[in-house]
Input
Amino acid sequence: MKINEELIRSFEHYVQDLLGISVRARPLQPAEGLPFYLHNRYSFHEASLLDKPCILMVSRTNEEDTPATLRKHMEQVQSRWGKPCIYVRKTIAPYNRKRLIEHHVPFVVPGNQMYLPELAIDLREYFRRMRVIQKPLSPATQVVIIYALLGDKTNKVSPSNLAKRFGYSAMTMTRSLDEIQSANLGEVHQAGRERFWDLMDDKRTLWEKARPLMQSPVRRRVWIQRNISNDEGAVAAGLTALSRYSMLSEPPYYVYAIGSEKWKMLRQSGLEEVPYPETEAHELEIWSYSPTLFARNGLVDPFSLYLSLQESKDERIESALVEMMERLEW
Output
């Protein structure tokens, strides 16, 4: 990969990590009327930040231009394409950064610094909106996120496919994609009559961005006095599952998880709650979505398990959760 292409990818990731905005830069063809020396000094890409189109002037040289020279170059480029410019460079000397800021020259050093004076007001409004929408994701949307984390890039993340896969209505899955888009967890685009979620991030980045918006799937915990099987919709959860994913010792009681609908069926069949500690009692977690959706080898998935135990103040559990997540193959 060429150096400027690597720099563009770094720019995209940096904006995503810093602002939570998905950005894709597209190369521009050489423009008629633009001096050759500008094409020699920069590669030009088109991008959109907060729905505002702009031109990225990506430095091709080791030499740093003065703010006055850069301003002149930007004016030439802007007059050709009619869009504001952003200077992108791998490194900029500290004294030059100070001078660029003093001259109000927009620039981005990926992984290091961003100065976008023309977008300052828009960014303030953007983060104000972000604070408003920072509410927990719905259980159905959480299912979609976990599906993406456990799947691969070939998964078709569309309302119709998701509805077939998880038993929700297509309308519920459409609302989930709306939530995902509102939370800036990716881009949702239209293809014909169908909508698709583009998984723009790698899985680790998606998890880190989505985790603060995700909730424990556990609605309540009860105690029961008999074993329940996978055929009844139960899988190992809680500390029992964590002991299988880590070096944590098994708890003195078995922990199951079950979906609310299956729990209703068990209650109708005569299963009763018992007070703890009863002899040979087991803990049963009733979840907001079915724990069998992503269960493997009789265990709940690690992401739901993490969310179910993340509020624990026990250092042993905290360490075991860290160990489990470090073992994941992202």
